[in-house]
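Handout, section B. The chain below has 366 residues.
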Amino acid sequence: VAPGHAPIPANAVINVSNIQALSGLAPDQYAAQASAAIGQAPGYFVFGPFGVLENPVIPPRLLPTTIDGSFKTPHTLGFSVGVQREIGKDMVVELDYYHRDIRDLLGVRKSNLAFQSRVVGRTFLPPFTTGEIQTFGPFYEGKYDALIVNFNKRLSRRFLLGANYTFAHATDNSRGIDSLPSDSFIGIVPEVTQGSNSNKNGSFIATNGNFVAQAGTFLNGPDLDKGPSDLAVNHIFQVNGLVELPWQIQVSGIIRAQSGFHFSRTPTKITDPDGDGGFLAIDLGPGAGRNAFTAPPFVNLDMRLAKRFALGERVKLQVLFEFFNLLNRQNPAAVGSRLNVAAQPFGDATSVLPGREGQIGFRIEF
């Protein structure tokens, strides 16, 4: 502190705005004395762009650094409608439709990356022009629509049966709460020129291959990643049943067939739509957007054989024989996402889920 000034209180948080009041020294004077206190030359410590004392050689962590001013709570608007019809005394058929409009999904983006970056290279907006600021906010959205047909037969005449089919269409433009979008720009496009090209009256393609939208239009960069949701499955068909045989034997099973999971093609040509130094998600080739491809379908059959024994009046013993993936189908867990890789053909399974498995179990009821 300055001569005659009281010591800075213990555990005080100092910044460029309060350091003179706390120490009697100007920010530059305090930073120089802090450097000297550990045997370093002036400039080792400085008050950085966020007003805190730091070493400029050591990059600050900026994940995230700000909260968006229009912060909103994520919410969903939805409705559903259905019809049910009873057939006889023990069978029911249902038809249901669901719609969900998912708004204000949270995530991060580079909020100070200038639109001009896609032409002139990485350029950041004031006040922090030396590096990116990642901002956390409600920048993303999604939609979900599903049609479900369901059939159920209650247990009667020694058997029950259920079946349902679901068609679902789920899309969003979010790559995850902690992942950056391929294009971080959100706002009105400013005027940009490159040589004889200008976006004043229309869009153009920069010499580096980046698309430059027309000035004055609204651009929502995350929409570049709009595609099927990461966990979306378009078609699901499932049948389950149980049959009671003589001698207290039960046979039951579930068969499930569904379309494959969605995946993105790993880029073979790196492009940079927002000028941040790298294209994060997809190859902009025809039809190659985020999650534009589908893995092979999933089919699985599980079976159970159960036999019950009476051990006196109050105790029952049940012996179970269970089989999983009875058909021993090689359902994909991951697929090749790169083109022209002989060892991992594009779209073929690179790893599979467990094959046929069985187990024996005992259950005592009393």
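Note. The chain has three helices and 23 strands. Compare this with the example in section A.
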